Amino acid sequence: MCNRLIDFVAIRDKTGRISFAPIQGETAKAVLTADEIEHLNTVSFKSSHGKITRRSSAAVRVLWTLGGKWKFLGSLVWLIPKPLRDLAYWIVAKNRYRLFGKRDFCRLPTPEEQARFLS
After folding, report:
1. Does the global pTM surpass 0.85?
2. Domain ranges of the chain
3. What is the SS3 assignment for 52?
4. How many CB atoms sit inside 10 A of residue 77's CB?
């Protein structure tokens, strides 16, 4: 699901405002705690202001950043109380392989996308 999420965002983020960082990289080590790195099971989003959000809130912030119809969809999702949003997020995350399949590998970024992948 992670690879598909990156594909989804990379295709739709025409302005290149969203970057991606592998959990094993230096960027994640600088932003996340050691426990979060070891047990990370969620999307994390760091805004340009340095605020980090996780789970459904991070997903909504990604939609807002994409703009257009995605921003509108994110606003609708934001209206759902956070406990319900996070419950739905947890259900999808728990069943991600059954819902989206599992790949043995992740694709490499294209040369145009390379700058968006942080170390």
Report:
1. no
2. 2-100
3. strand
4. 17
Give me the residue label for tokens 């694709």: 107
Count how many residues are written for the chain. 119
- Which positions ≥6 away from 7 have C-beta within 8 Å? 107
Q: Write the pLDDT tens digit of every residue in 80-116.
A: 999 999 999 889 888 877 877 777 777 677 777 778 8
Residue 58 tokens, joined: 């991070």
* Nearest-10 Cα torsion for 41, 28, 46, 91: -10
The secondary structure element, H or E, covering residue 2 is helix 2-12
User: How high is the mean pLDDT of the chain?
Assistant: 83
